[in-house]
Amino acid sequence: MKLKRTRGKTIKRRRIENKTNYDKRLNMLKSGSLRIVFRKSNRYIQAQLVESIESQDKILINLKSSELMKYGWPEEARNSLKSLPASYLIGYLIGNKIDDKSKKKGLIVDLGMYRTVHKSKIYAFIKGLVDAGVEVTSKEDIFPEEDRIKGNHLKNKIVMKKFDEVKKKIGGKK
Q1: Assigned domain for 10 exists
Q2: Using an 8 Å Cβ cutoff, are 91 and 126 in contact?
Q3: C-alpha closest to that of 128 among 85, 164, 162
Q4: How many CB atoms lie within 10 A of CB 128?
Q5: pTM
Q6: How many domains in the chain?
Q7: How far is residue 1 from each of residues 4, 13, 14, 15, 23, measured CA to CA in Å?
Q8: pLDDT of residue 1
Q9: For position 126, which CATH number holds?
Q10: Is residue 154 part of a domain?
Q11: Local confidence pLDDT in tens for the 174 residues of the chain
C-alpha cells in the first residue's frame, strides 16, 4: 500500500487503514488517565482497562463478551454476544471489576475510530459502566432505552428472559 501525501506530510499507514487517530491518541496519552477501551468484532465485544506508561499500553483488565457465558448467558443465544444487551453487560462487568479507587479517577472511554451514534452499542456499554459506579461524563438522553438494553427488540426473546439473572450474577461478584 502506497502512503498518500498531502501538502508535504506523509499520512501514517494505520491512519489510512482507518485504525488509529494519532491526534486523539496523543491527547489521551498526555492526560495520564486510565482508559477503558471498547472494540467490536464480527462475533464479540471486547473491553479493556489500559494504562499507558511512556506510550506503552499495559492491559490491566481484558474482557470479551464470550465471558458472559460464565454468568448465565443462554447457550441458545450464543450468536447474540455482540448485541446491545451484551454490550451493556460487558460494560457493567468491567465496571464491577475495576477497583473503587480507579472508578473515581476520571477514566477515559476510548472508542477508537467508531462513529458515535446515539442509543447504539457503544452507549449501551457506557451505560453499563455508569450503572456499575464508574464516573463517566455523559448525557442521559444518549443512552438506549431500558427495554432495548434488556433485549425486548431482539427476535431471540431468551436474552430478555435471562438478562436480569445475568446482571444479578455480575453484580454479586466483584
Answers
A1: no
A2: yes
A3: 85
A4: 27
A5: 0.84
A6: 1
A7: 9, 8, 11, 12, 22
A8: 54
A9: 3.30.420.100
A10: yes
A11: 555 555 667 888 877 777 777 777 777 777 878 889 999 999 999 999 999 888 788 999 999 999 999 999 999 888 889 999 999 999 999 999 998 877 777 788 888 877 788 889 999 999 999 999 998 888 889 999 999 999 888 887 888 888 989 999 998 765
**Residues 12/18/21/25 CA torsion (nearest 10 deg):** -100
Place of cell 475495576: 98
pLDDT at 5: 57
**CB neighbour class for 92 (10 Å; exposed up to 12, middle 13-18, buried from 19):** buried
Residue 2 lies in a domain: no
Asked whether residue 138 is assigned to any structural domain, the reply reads yes
Q: How far apart are CA 87 and CA 100, in angstroms?
A: 22
Predicted pLDDT at 144: 94
* Full domain range(s) for residue 26: 17-172
Three-state DSSP string of the chain:
CCCCEECCEECCHHHHCCCCCHHHHHHHHHHCCCEEEEEECCCCEEEEEEEEECCEEEEEEEEEHHHHHHHCCCHHHHHHCCCHHHHHHHHHHHHHHCCHHHHCCCCEEECCCCCCCCCCHHHHHHHHHHHCCCCCCCCHHHCCCHHHHCCCCCCCCHHHHHHHHHHHHHHHCC
